[in-house]
Structures are given as C-alpha cells and as structure tokens.
Amino acid sequence: MDDSILLALANQLGKILKQRGLKLALAESCTGGMASQYITAIAGSSAWLDRAFITYSNQAKVEMLHVSEQTLANFGAVSEQTAHEMALGTLSNSGADISASITGIAGPNGGTEDKPVGTVCFGFALKNKLLIDQTNPQVSTHTKRFSGSRDAIRKQSVTYTLETLITLTLSIDL
Question: Tens digit of pLDDT for each residue in 151-174?
Fold first, then answer.
C-alpha cells in the first residue's frame, strides 16, 4: 500500500468532516497509531480530529476505554464485541461525533485457527445517529481478514478504517 493513497484518504476524510462540522476520535490496537499518523500528517487536522487512543494491552482497553473485562475474557481482544466497546468508549471519552476502533492480529505470530493472523475487527460509533447494527443503533462492527506482512495488514486496516469513515460520514443526515 502506497503512503500517498493513505494520505489521500485521510485528506478526503478531513475535508468531509470539516465541511460537516464533525469531530473524529480513534482507538487503535494492532495499528498502534498508524491511522492517527496518516490523519495528523494532514495540515489542519486539529480542526476535525479530537483525539486518539492507542490501547495495545487489554488493561489499556479497560482503563482508557472502559472495555469490560468480562468481554475480553469471553470474546478476546480481537472480537467485534471488543471493537464495539472500544468505539463506544472512545466516543464517551472524547468530544467527538464519530469514532472508530481497530483491534486485530497483525502477525507474524499470535493467530489461531479461529482467528488467524490478518483478522481485524472494527467498530464505528456515532453520537445520536442510527447505523445498521440492530443490537446497538449507534455502533456498527465489522471483521475483515487481510493477508501479507505485518506492515501490509496494518496498512490494509487503516485503509479500511479511512474508507469506512468516509462512507459513514457522508451518510450522516445533519
């Protein structure tokens, strides 16, 4: 994945958020701040990025984002349930209107038969807006399986996050 593509996506997202008067907050685990890196590479991103959390450990997810220890015990850090709670925790611990969370297994180790390397779960939350997920109308979760090197999996995760945020942000009725 070419850096220029990620920068272009971050720039496009920023323009849309700024035009719509919305603020973004992120929670990153397996990407370790990579999405935030591309977003903050855009001059003026402070107008639309409120904050970002890098919650690599389970303890950080619990302490900073209020992910339930029971959720982590029952489903693991790499699960839509955890991504859901990360997205909600990010939204409630920020001044943002929209949040995204990323949690996964970038490799080269750590995968299992059920959750192989490249499994990444995402959460997207909106304040007072209706999304597709019927279990919580404010949150949408997705699981993707990416392939390639650790860096490739992380960049694919950031690409998916930025593209999904662009789509979601454009779909919000203001």
Answer: 999 999 999 999 999 999 998 876
The percent of the chain in helix, strand and coil, each rounded to the nearest 5, is: 45, 20, 35
pTM higher than 0.70 for the full model?
Answer: yes
Contact by Cβ (8 Å): 81, 129: no
Whether the Cβ atoms of residue 76 and residue 115 lie closer than 8 Å to each other: yes
Amino acid at 26: L
Contact 24, 49 (CB under 8 A): yes
Q: Which domains does the chain have, with CATH numbers?
A: 3-171 (3.90.950.20)
